[in-house]
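User: Some background: our group keeps a shared notebook of sequences we're curious about, and every so often someone picks one and asks for a predicted structure to add to the entry. Today it's my turn. The entry only has the sequence so far, pasted here. Could you supply the structure so I can complete it?
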Amino acid sequence: MTVSPYVPIFMHLTRRRLFTTLLAAPLTALTGRAADEEQLLPGPQLERLKKFIPRTLAKMQRRDPVFVAVCGDECSAFYQPGRGIVRKDIVRAWYGRFLDRLGAPFFYHGGVVDTTPGSAQRDAALEEAWATWRKLRAEWEKTGKGDPPPVPGLPVPDPSGPEDTTGVNQLQRLSQPSDALIPSPSSFYADNFAEEGAVGVQVFDPVLSMVFNAEEKAATDLVIIAYGARDALLNASLATFRAALEAAVAECRSRGADVILAGPPPALDEADERAATGRSRQWAAVMREVADAAGVFFADLGAAAVYQLSDLINRTVEGNFRAAIDPVRRLFDHGEKVQDAFHPSGPGHVRMGETAADWLLRGEPVRPFAASGELVIGSGPAGEDVLTIRVACTAPDPVTIGVSPLRFAGWSIKPGSPDRVHTFQPGRGARLFRYVAIRNVEPLQGHEEFIRGSALISDDDAQHLVDIKVLVQPVMLLWPEERVDGAAGEHLLKCTLVNTGTVGAEVALTLDWLGNPTALPAVKIPPGERLPVPLRLPLPAIDDAALRFRNTVTVDATVNGRTARFTRHVEGVRHLGLTQKVPLVPLRQWRVQPAPGETIAPGPQLKIQADPKAVYFQIDIPADIAADVVEGKPWGRLEVQIDGRKTGENGKLGAVGTLVIEVPHEEGACRLLPVKPAVFGNGYAYPYDPRGFRAVVRVKPDGSRTVEFSMVRVFLKLHEWSLDGGGQADLGINVRLALWDAVAGGPGEARTFTLTASKFPSADARSLTLLELRSQPAPRWSMRIG
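Assistant: Of course. Here's the predicted structure to add to the notebook entry:
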């Protein structure tokens, strides 16, 4: 184990009371008010802190406690998987290093404290371990034989893994029970709301429900928001990501808190490491734009992980990317026992956190170049799309750069395309690097005429992870994304056509919807202008046999013989009512565009009932739907989502959690996993009495099953719950039944059945469908367009 370079070497001392007496108590005595003391930071650094974190700075200058809330995905929830630590010490993640480094000039001796209380079992085990340690230590001191006994609670060294870098505050806390720790006023008290698998829209959950629910003396001073890694895996909407971040920043600042947005780290979990490295950069770029517009600090964890000195002079064109990515690959070294190229290792968190803190104080390194791009549809010799990256020299001296394109939204670089190296002479402007682009997935449309991509660019001094905005030419079609309830007959999709070129264009448009191609009137549009393009979509007729539909709306836009294709997915489920039986559909089959005439295999049947006191879910499962028997694992998992927000918010952009019920193999009671405070939507922050939930499974002689789940109505405190039609009678819901699959190692998509599934992440309230709290629902569609 090594100690962070910011930690004095004497912190290797291991006696428990030495930690407590020599470190905590004397340092606590030093935490008096210091408003008049000489500042330890240079003026420019202090000005940056005043600009980005004024409230936090004022408290650090007084050496008062700083209360921090962390919202994000698992890259901020734990620091390294598979290390065998007794207790998940979340403050060893990147943000702990960031805050430790930030507090060092202000003598924040208490470091970063996790406000999650330690378990009684852990504390008791540490007390016992210390009693044993004292005996072993005394014996070792007498004999001097062998190695000294290891300090209780600290990470066990892994000879096959990377060196574990542990800071002083982590050493102290890991080695002591909770009641032995002496709190210091000069500490960062961190409340971590990060969740594994979380996406950007889930920021609504903690920010609107829990972050600011504290007494005034412990009010949140700093909110760190870190999403994007999971959004990239799900190909989630950039427009939604932007809207969620903007709303979260506005809410935090309205409460007087400082905000830091943190972009996702890189990943190397694909066979194509270029694609993996650049996968999340589109979301990082949007996050930077939100931060710049709001005037908050953007901690670019991806760029921080990649940034380092460059040995460009020793590289070849063929080996440029490999040489640049090799040091990054070491940040995913978890040892032989854990192979994980998605979550950075402990040393990776150290680099990201301490580099981000340095950039907050000093600013990001100034690059001697600027990059932009454009993609011209069908302009290649064989009709290929051509991507051009423009790099301009911004330095007065000669500069040599190496360019390694990574990932671009919807397109990849043609395999075999070489990296490029170029030397700029003084006074020379820009260099154009052209590549054949292959369209492989649908490009993300974030209500803008750009797609986004990235490149790894090395100059004479350092290597940089660079985000590039790429203008798509000759035209771009901007689509809405929305949930629409109460649709019938015809739906008007309001799109916008943008002329991204420098000359006027005549555009021929063809709409394909439900397998019916339709030529639309040609339009003329001046350069740089936007033109509304309303698309009228006849909806499927609603009758007793029509319960759901899924289709793709496609628009081909042709300019001068070159055609660009734009698509949106539409999924509709008929308004549901009480007591009716509704089949769930296989998730894998439903996610694929059904072929003409294809029928969806019937699945389990769902029935929902309600009365003034409770809501009841019943899922009847045929005998031929079976789960694998895996020792120690349940038969399956039932997931129920309910949007319990008030009128006007139900169905709108927001986060809705999930009630998770584990269904056993045998008949009897099911296990409800812990229910989170905001499970019924942002705005909820309540504890729930377990007695208000009930879940059982009944197994019939023929092997069929019935799972029953119910909960009391009083849990939905914000919903009016009108059963007579006089008030709020709509409820957003979704239900998934996932059976255990031995091949998948858990609930697999092949054995998952769902009520509705769309392009929206499942936590997005718009991914739910509409239940009317009446037995005869209106003949309307609830649609998700995205």
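Suggested note for the entry: Residues 2-33+42-361 form a domain with the Rossmann fold fold (CATH 3.40.50.1110). Residues 499 and 587 are 38 Å apart (CA to CA).
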